[in-house]
Every structure is written in C-alpha cells, then in structure tokens.
C-alpha cells in the first residue's frame, strides 16, 4: 500500500478536532502523517493538533480559499496519496481511510471519495440532499467532494485545484480528472458524519456561490423560470414528504429554504 497523508484544513476547529484526531488514530490503515493547514485559528486548534502529533502548516486568513489551502496541503504532504477531510467531518468507522486508499492500487484510479451521512438533528431538506448525493449502496451519479476524499499526489501535480474558483473547486477538479482518462470512484463503505445547519441567508449564499462557480467553470446558467416554476413544484413535493415523515411543523421553513436555494441558484447564474 502506498503511503498516505491525511490533510485537514482548519479554522477554529476546537469543537471538532478532538474526536476527529482520535478517530484517525484508530484507522486500520495508519497515515504516515496528519497534516493540518490552518488559516488563522484563535482557539486551541493548533495546540490540539500539535499535542496529537499532527504537522502544522499555516496560511494567512486572507489567503484562504478552499482551492488554495488544498493545493498548499498537497504541496506540503509527504505521502504518495493524500486524503482530504473537512474539519467538521468525523469518520464513522475504522476503515474509512483504508477503503479510500485500496482502489488506488489500480493506477488508472485518480481519486476516490466517500459517503457522507447527516448528523442527528439535521434539518430534513439538508438530510435529503445528503442522502441523494451520497447513497449507501447505489452506483447512481453522486457529487465528488473533498469533505472526504483521497487522490494521488502525482495526479495533483499534473492537475491542481483551480484557485480562481471560490467554491465547487473539488467538483470541477474531478471533472478534469475524468477528462484526463482517470477513474473517480465513489466508495460508500468509507463514510463520515457530516452536515451543516444553514440559516436561510446561508442557504442563499451557498447556492449563489455554487451557481457562480458553475457559470465560471463551464458556462451553465440558470433561468428565472427555475425560480418561478421550479420552486412551487419542489415546495409542494417537500411538504408532502415532510407530512409523511411526521414533520408538519417543518413545512414553513422548508418552503423558505427552497425559495432561498432557488433564488441563490438563479442570481448566482446571472453574474
């Protein structure tokens, strides 16, 4: 098995870091290093990382983008393979890393990524989206994500992440890898607990940023029809599902959530 570095990109990760670092110590495939790229933490993140034996690299807060910090970490990593893990993701089993790394014995495999499972208490619409994008056993199309992934460093040297993109750089990177003739494999056996609790403004901002990145990367633009036709239809489908799940009280927020989501997609695609 090739040597593996685990790359964590952190900012004030104190509340997540303890369980995460402990889970890495229990992996059936021990990494040769845990590399933390920190972008200006003011809590105990760096102290906790050093105490656990992690190697610490720092960048300035104003330098941070997802692509820049990831490229920085790949450049610094000592392993032939580099696993990426978000600071708020927690490996759910002890073979998280081994399951991601094993397929790389095949030199045609460029990258692997794992399943994400919503944390307890996640808002239903966010949980549904995670379940859709990261199914438990389906080969259906899924969304590549550096929340939990692993790639060959030699491939990254040929194809680094696009630092002009503010968001969705991982998805664009995976598309480039596929176009280069490598395989990108979804490994549902490797899974992490990971979800967010967004405000409505957060939903809007995230979807707007994703739409802007998609427009920048390949010219895909959403029309206003998506908002005024797509939103009512989706809102009714959401309401029916919430009622079936016994979550009638969540319907008003679900409608607002979807409106923020669709509005962000449309407005992000305009500029």
UniProtKB/TrEMBL annotation:
SUPFAM superfamilies: Nucleotide-diphospho-sugar transferases. Residues 5-130 form the Glycosyltransferase 2-like domain. Keywords: Transferase. GO terms for molecular function: transferase activity. This is Glycosyltransferase family 2 protein. The keyword Nucleotide-binding does not apply.
């Amino acid at each position: 098995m090739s040597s593996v570095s685990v790359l964590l990109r952190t900012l004030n990760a104190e509340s997540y870091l303890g369980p995460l670092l402990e889970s890495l110590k229990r992996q059936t495939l021990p990494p040769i290093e845990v590399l933390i790229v920190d972008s200006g933490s003011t809590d105990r993140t760096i102290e906790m990382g050093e105490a656990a034996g992690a190697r610490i690299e720092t960048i300035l807060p104003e330098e941070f983008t997802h692509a820049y910090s990831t490229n920085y970490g790949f450049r610094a990593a000592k392993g032939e393979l580099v696993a990426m893990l978000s600071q708020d993701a927690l490996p759910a089993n002890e073979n998280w890393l081994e399951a991601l790394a094993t397929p790389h014995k095949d030199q045609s495999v460029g990258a692997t990524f794992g399943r994400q499972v919503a944390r307890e208490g996640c808002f239903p619409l966010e949980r549904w989206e995670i379940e859709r994008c990261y199914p438990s056993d389906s080969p259906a199309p899924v969304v590549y994500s550096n929340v939990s992934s692993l790639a060959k460093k030699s491939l990254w040297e040929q194809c680094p992440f696009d630092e002009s993109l503010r968001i969705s750089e991982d998805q664009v990177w995976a598309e480039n890898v596929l176009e280069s003739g490598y395989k990108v494999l979804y490994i549902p056996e490797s899974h992490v607990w990971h979800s967010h609790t967004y405000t409505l403004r957060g939903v809007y901002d995230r979807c707007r940023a994703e739409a802007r990145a998609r427009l920048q990367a390949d010219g895909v633009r959403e029309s206003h029809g998506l908002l005024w036709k797509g939103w009512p239809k989706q809102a009714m489908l959401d309401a029916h599902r919430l009622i079936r799940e016994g979550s009638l009280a969540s319907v008003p927020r679900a409608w607002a959530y979807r409106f923020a989501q669709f509005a962000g997609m449309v407005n992000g695609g305009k500029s």
